[in-house]
Design a protein that fits this description.
Blueprint lengths: L5 H17 L5 E4 L2 H5 L4 H6 L9 E5 L5 E2 L5 E2 L4 E14 L4 E6 L6 H6 L5 E4 L2 H10 L6 E4 L7 H7 L5 E5 L1 H4 L4 H14 L3 E6 L6 E3 L3 E2 H9 L5 E5 L10 H12 L6 E5 L12 H10 L4 E6 L7 H13 L3 E13 L5 H4 L6 E7 L4 E3 L2
Parallel strand pairs: 6-7, 6-15, 7-8, 8-9, 9-10, 10-13, 13-14, 14-15
Antiparallel strand pairs: 1-17, 2-5, 3-4, 5-16, 11-12, 16-17, 16-18
Helix pairs in contact: 6-8, 8-9, 10-11
Length: 368
């Protein structure tokens, strides 16, 4: 067993020790108790699931014939420790020319974290206090989307109060039956006359589906508003896909039917579009957004049962790989230990369990 690691010892141990000792200053250590570590048989898989997606791992085995020194300065027996080094994306930032916006309950993630940790540059607001909070956090007015009330009688007051935002969003007006053609045209005119922004409507209906059979379709109803004012746009918010097509196919249909200049952005959903879920996944949709010439996508995470930050990380990681977000990483070291009494004789790679995750406190941009 000893000879199995001799070559690794000769090649790597000197660098491993120097590297670990040199990184002691400013390290943040997350300690895993021995009793917990001993129960972790599938250690690498379990540990990797807690480390964000993109990493480069260089295994450095601490096997040698002399006593080694661990991070905390205690003496270790021969062959007891194994070190794995890599990096992990810790924060995201906006990419020039791209906007990722979010509509979310702050009970999930604060707007400040959506901005500073996850790199979102747009946010949906529904009140003056939210509008001011968003700006104080750092969201630019042109990337703030005002949710227009479902009740048409309340629309003017909100638009007039928040009259310098970038977008004014009416959610699924024909699907919900909350607005008709005339009232939507009035909203579009309000936005045009009172603000520098755009009026945007959300829809999840395939354009050729009948609205009032046989006189009109959902497509003809929305087009009658889009053609009325030049500042009117539409966003697809069909998430799981259906008989008519996947989410990505919906996006293509909307762009072809309404016009690429009118369908310039679309919604993704916090749960239904996650990889492994129904419909198109985040990565596929970012690819589709690029193909359709979009420069903004919006992430819906409000009123969703049990969303998690895993879904947000999946969205951001997919956005980073497809050129929509910047990623900033931090180096880490994982310390593994073999608890066998004679580790040089009885320990192989499968015997080591993690006892520490050490974050090095640096930050640097990484690229897909």
């Amino acid at each position: 067993m000893k000879s199995k690691y001799q070559l690794l010892t000769n090649l790597f141990i000197a660098f491993a020790v120097v590297f670990l000792i040199s990184c002691q200053d400013g390290l943040v250590t997350e300690h895993i108790p021995q009793e917990k570590a001993l129960n972790m048989k599938t250690t690498l898989n379990k540990l990797s699931s807690n480390i964000e997606k993109k990493k480069i791992v260089l295994p450095l085995f601490g096997h040698n014939t002399d006593t080694t020194t661990t991070i905390d300065g205690t003496k270790a027996l021969n062959c007891s420790y194994m070190y794995v080094h890599g990096w992990s994306i810790r924060t995201y930032a906006p990419k020039n020319g791209k906007t990722t916006g979010v509509w979310a309950d702050e009970n999930l993630v604060t707007w400040e974290n959506f901005s500073s940790k996850y790199g979102f540059s747009g946010v949906v607001v529904s009140s003056l206090s939210q509008y001011n909070d968003a700006q104080n956090i750092g969201f630019m007015k042109e990337n703030i989307m005002v949710h227009v009330p479902h009740d048409f009688s309340e629309a003017f007051d909100r638009i007039d109060l928040l009259n310098d935002a970038g977008y004014y969003y009416v959610d699924e007006p024909f699907e919900r039956g909350t607005y008709n053609t005339s009232s939507l045209r009035i909203v579009a005119s309000m936005v045009y006359d009172l603000t520098p922004g755009k009026m945007v409507m959300g829809s999840f209906k395939w354009p050729s589906l009948p609205f009032n059979f046989p006189t009109s379709t959902y497509g003809s109803k929305y087009k009658s508003v889009l053609d009325y004012e030049s500042n009117s746009y539409i966003m697809c918010d069909e998430y799981p896909g259906n008989y008519w097509g996947t989410t990505a196919e919906y996006w293509t249909k909307f762009s072809l039917y309404y016009g690429f200049n009118k369908h310039r952005s679309a919604w993704m959903n916090v749960t239904m579009n996650a990889p492994g879920g129904s419909g198109s996944n985040f990565s596929t949709l970012f690819i589709k957004a690029n193909a359709l010439g979009m420069n903004s996508v919006w992430f819906f995470a409000g009123s969703i049962d049990n969303p998690t930050t895993v879904n947000i990380n999946e969205f951001c990681y997919a956005g980073w790989t497809k050129g929509w977000l910047r990623g900033f990483a931090e180096h880490y070291t994982i310390v593994y230990k073999c608890f066998e009494p004679n580790p040089c004789e009885f320990c192989d790679e499968g015997s080591y369990v993690p006892i520490e995750i050490i974050w090095h406190g640096d930050s640097f941009e990484v690229y897909p």
